[in-house]
């Protein structure tokens, strides 16, 4: 690829700091982009703010119509996008296509079709102030900042961006320093659509660029990343009174009940655990298998895992690609060492590959909660399995975590699956499937506990991209003076007292009305 981007008109930097993008599968330098200084980051936000002033007053139908041009361009140039994601992330092209571009395009389609309804002013019936009419209006916030991680460098920032744009905001994205070229491609495509260039700003850089974005006067931030970074970012948002959504780490448990379909469960564990080499916030991070099916499930998971083809995803026929950088490999190794030292068995995998930044898909058996692998986020291709003697035990262990993003339940009894789902502390629980909830454009996605707060996707997220404004008006001709206005008097006070008793005492209506006299 070999790109050197100056990002002119979009935070061009004269500083010598460069964001470098390397292909994790080959080590090849794919491109370099100048990192924005603080002033440059602020200038991108300022230009976005000016562009938003015109965008935000367009009728919503017109905004949606114009944004469909972005969809057309994404569909036309999908293979360029897939190539850059696949190279920069080291993931198979099919994953880049389906999990990143298709989900983004679908989200854009859903919002463009439904936003006029979702954001239409909403009448609210008032139970006390019956002489008044109230309505909630949804007004754009202004500039929405988006700070995003490297594991899904397209769908995460673009999914947030399309919601913000449909709602009438401008966006400024700070992509991960590890995967800047994917957003550079998205920006290039945006600029080709004829939509206002400054409406879609990008600030390339490191953590400081993200900090500069938070301090630039944005009206909202959507942050996706690690828990520790999220705490720092939330504190910075607090200091600047910037409302924020926090999409943080996950430790998704999978409960395999005694009555699960073992074949489907095994395949789901292997897919959910090793997709994107396990570098997914909602990947299967721990399995609780009922003792009656444990051995059968384990041996099937082992066999299926051994069949996975690991390597450079550029060619066809690769299932599991590269690990983003060496530190992620070290984290996986540490978890495995700790688990083995406490009695876990490596069923398959367990080590890095000699031919590059790859790690063998690993299955661990005999795991328990004394091991870090069952408690801390792995974010790599390691699936630890613990045998449990009851579903109660599985639920207790699933909830024994500081994280609560996704959770999975496998059982042939869907009603039981729903009962278990209701007892799991997670933002999203999926029955007999894995990961798919992220692709449900209509449904909210987000975490509880230290997995974060706020939601993306669905109606609530779109409304959250707006300021809610109540407009209160009269249903009847207004008198020249309301009874609660000045001047106060003992008479009006006694009347208010009687009114309170009549309204809020218990008893039949006639009896209560008598209190007015
Ligand atoms: P990080 O938290 O390291 O980085 C996330 C983003 O924050 C990057 O753009 C990073 O920039 C930026 N950043 C770092 N420091 C600061 C700062 N002080 N102020 C503002 N921005 C800052 O996460 P990773 O990129 O390593 O992503 C992996 C994590 O993301 C995992 O924990 C995973 O679970 C989580 N995640 C959560 C998802 C969810 O939906 N809940 C989805 C996907 C991932 P830079 O890269 O330049 O340091």
UniProtKB/TrEMBL annotation:
It comes from the Bacteria. The active site is at 247, 281. Keywords: Oxidoreductase. GO terms for molecular function: oxidoreductase activity, acting on the aldehyde or oxo group of donors, NAD or NADP as acceptor. Signal peptide: none annotated. The keyword Oxidoreductase applies. One of its GO terms (biological process) is aldehyde metabolic process. Gene3D superfamilies: Aldehyde Dehydrogenase, Chain A, domain 1, Aldehyde Dehydrogenase, Chain A, domain 2. CDD domains: ALDH_DDALDH (cd07099). Residues 14-471 form the Aldehyde dehydrogenase domain. The keyword Oxidoreductase applies. Belongs to the aldehyde dehydrogenase family. This is Aldehyde dehydrogenase. It comes from Labilithrix luteola.
